[in-house]
Amino acid sequence: MAANSLNSLQAASMDGVNLGVLTAGMVVFMAVLHQLSFEKPLYELEERLLKLESQPDPSPAEKESMRRMRVELTQMTRERYSNLDPWQTVQVSRHPDRPQTPDYLELVFDEFVELHGDKAFGDDRALITGFARLAGRKVMFVGHQKGRNLKERTECCYGCAHPEGYRKAMQKMEMASRFGLPIICLIDTPGAYPGIGAEERGQAYNIAVNLRDMSTLEVPIICVVIGEGGSGGALGIGMGDHVAVLEFAYYSVISPEGCAGILWKSSRHADKAARALRFTSKDLVELGVVDEVVPEPLGGAHRDHFKMATTLKSRLIESLQGLESLSSAQLLERRYQRYRRIGVFHENGPV
Amino acid sequence: MSTLENTDTSAKSAVKRPKRGVPEGLWLRCDGCGATVFRKQVEQNLNVCPECEHHFYVPTSMRIRQLLDPDSFEEWYAEMSSGDPLGFADRKPYKERIIDEQKKTGMKDACTVGRGYMRGRPLVFATTDSAFIMGSMGSVVGEKLTRAVEKATELSLPLIIVSGSGGGARMHEGIISLMQMGKVSAALARFRRANGLFISVLTNPTMGGVAASFASLGDIIVAEPQALVGFAGPRVVQATCKIDLPEGFQTSEFLLKHGFVDRIIHRSEMRSELARLIDYGSR
Description:
The structure holds two protein chains of two kinds. Chain A is 51% helix and 14% strand.
């Protein structure tokens, strides 16, 4: 409970919100906790079904009603989840039971050899890096870590990386480029850490260097937003050849709370900001910013980690196969153009 | 030759803006020392307070006159203006906001790029201006800067970008703005590979996505004194850390102390210092 409210506090504090506003954001998040408010009817039905199922020797009539309830539950889940509004999507992306980087390391990869440290300041737990094997292939893995319990979350700053995290990630990716290992980045962060130490150690500088240097790596880079794609903190490991988002993940220039705090003067309007920012998976494809939406299991990834991981694994292998045939020169040109073409502007006069 | 000679008529556009910069009237109050100073005197002093050396806001047209040789600046892509990819509206539709900002500032967007001469040295020169939606980077800023970097690469010219962006990536263009950070940074990677010299000049304020992309990628990074430069806004940092921020937090001097700025340069010295640096970085 405490961890959860702190998590929302962290998320809300990303971009220009004052403390008074943070408290409001906290209340909203505490109310939803593990059961998101729009999921309430689903949980109620599920509970009724469980009660019936736990009875010994059900009568044929009871069996029939259980069957109907299962059908109804599936339909209701499908209906709810195909009509999530952007703010509900954000809540799903932050769901405490949603699979996180360590879950995917366990379920998607055959092996993970963690490589710690940036050889300059420390070992940021919010970004984990190391060698991994994906269906027999050797790859370099980079991923945000949010933490599951209060202790882990504190250690990982709720998935908000410091400059040393970005530096560590860049060092490992640069090494991967020299050894010809493809890079897989799993993005899940409310944003880069906004603290005194982070500023003293060059948060802006280290993210900037990653953007520049990731564009020069001569191996395929696949980036997947698995939960929250929070601004520069996400892009800092997000300059890829193939960028995917999970169905209920979001990827935004600013957190909805932060945007609401600045433009609507209160984070209570986060739902409005969420709509305006157009950051859901569907929007991101329409805007030409991501290449692929990875579908989630019925009712969201938090309901079935295994199924989510299986889908992700097959998509990762597929995208990797598509990129492996390209020469490094082709890869670099393609990556350059991938970002070069993004932008919407008019040009009237002659150049 | 003194840089002062370029300032005679240049302050006019500064006084058009109601809130920031140099307010209208015969006298003005300095944000730095609180002293009431004669406006004319500030203008003649490159918009620097004669009492405390506080560096006031400088509009783009004036910046060009301060730094480049007279009439040497040839602007590129001047007509480029922003689309509205999200159909964004907060309390005002983005489309209207753009038009209002254009009327207010006389600029099409926050960024100006082109080529010019600095004490006889040819270069590609760009600025972001905090008067236009806080100098934030959307499609236009990203595209103009990327083209400027590509041109500098093609023409083998040194590149100077003067940043004045309190807004970082522009919220109103959402994820498209975030991607501009990647776009400009990738162009700078190619420029770097071609051994181009990039000098980044940080002015008040340079924050967020602008600081976390091109502004931090100079081979040499210089800053005006006391400029606010950082990633997260001070209020956000304060709210996260819940302790008083150290004195001078996120100023040019703070960055110098922590090793992220090469030199702090007074505005009156900027042109000659930059010209000197260019000579070291040219083959």
